[in-house]
Specification:
326 residues, alpha/beta, TIM Barrel, two-stranded antiparallel ribbon, 10 strands, 40% helix, 15% strand
Length: 326
């Protein structure tokens, strides 16, 4: 069975959905992961305007595109952090001026529920989001105090998310938290503590972002096997790590600067072992889409997006007990 290859629209927020859908179809994609940004997917309109969802479906069907997942990273970060500061570039305009923590969280919860309801209307079962992280960097300076602070933060996070998760339990939509550096969940051990803090709820899963994991030393294939029953979404990104002794994986330098310790690469042009990744997905019987989150500071975006799709098609293979397509 050919795996569905989707394009994550959050990397293309400067393009209208109509333009991007046309391009994605031309590049060979079968689906989109719609980020709730720009005009790609607007949950508040979807839940208040009668024709919005139907028009969205018609636009994508005209290009023979499915919807692999919805994504609303900014709303998840806003709910956890109680601040819009870190999410200004991707937040809808009506959320950017928010400053009061409680108001931020109330609005974020409303946005997430609207997104989940939109997903249900679209027949989409996965809503991807960020876990956020309000802890200051200094919280990790002292190993003796780091774990207690992190566990206390997770308990606070769980308190903020409880009402949203209770509401989600009434919908046929699961929440996929991205495992990424700079968030509340960034590797296997933090993922375990994170899921435990949320009570191992059945509607909570994990979203793997391959390149984001790789550059800070986490093996995405190993994470997939460890959390086999919780992996409900996979983002495909690639990176190259280049540590010279003068740099590190942490850097204020812009992407594309050769002095950086790592940088984005178009899938197949970096160091992520995608063969190992696909075999791990077969091992856990993952049947969802793989969604290309394209980034490369040196390559033309349209060439790269098309190339990434063809790379994954060449690399994928039917499982041992599947009937190969001819």
């Amino acid at each position: 069975m050919a795996r569905t290859i989707a394009l994550y629209t959050g990397s293309w927020r400067d393009r209208s959905l109509a333009e991007l859908a046309t391009k994605a179809s031309e590049w060979g994609y079968a689906a989109l992961e719609l980020e709730c940004v720009a005009d790609h997917c607007l949950p508040q309109r979807a839940t208040t305007e009668q024709d919005y969802v139907a028009e969205l479906v018609r636009l994508l069907e005209a290009q023979e595109l499915q919807i692999a997942a919805l994504s609303y990273e900014a709303a998840g970060g806003l709910l956890t952090e109680g601040s819009a500061t870190n999410w200004q570039e991707v937040l809808p305009e009506h959320l950017r001026p928010l400053t009061d923590a409680e108001t931020c969280r109330q609005q974020a919860a409303a946005e997430l529920l609207a997104a989940a309801q939109t997903a249900q209307q679209l027949g989409v079962q996965v809503l991807v989001t960020a876990s956020g992280c309000p802890l200051p960097a200094t919280a990790f300076f002292s190993p003796q105090r780091c774990l207690p602070r992190y566990q206390a933060f997770l308990q606070e996070l769980a308190r903020h998310w409880t009402s949203v998760l209770d509401e989600l339990a009434t919908l046929d939509v699961r929440l996929a938290f991205l495992v990424q550096p700079g968030q509340a969940v960034w590797d296997a051990y933090s993922a375990e503590l994170f899921l435990e803090a949320l009570g191992w709820r059945s509607q909570v899963g994990l979203a793997v972002d391959t390149g984001a994991l790789y550059w800070h030393g986490t093996d995405p294939a190993q994470l997939i096997r460890r959390f086999a029953d919780r992996i409900i979404h996979v983002r495909i990104s690639d990176v190259a790590v280049h540590l010279t002794g003068d740099n590190s994986v942490l850097s204020p330098l812009p992407h594309g600067d050769p002095r950086r310790g790592w940088d984005w690469r178009s899938p197949g042009h970096g160091q992520v072992d995608f063969q190992s990744l696909l075999r791990a997905l077969h091992d856990i019987c993952y049947t969802g889409a793989v969604s290309v989150a394209w980034a490369d500071p040196h390559m033309h975006p349209e060439f790269g997006a098309a190339d990434a799709c063809q790379f994954l098609k060449r690399l994928d293979f039917p499982g041992r007990h599947e009937v190969p397509e001819r």
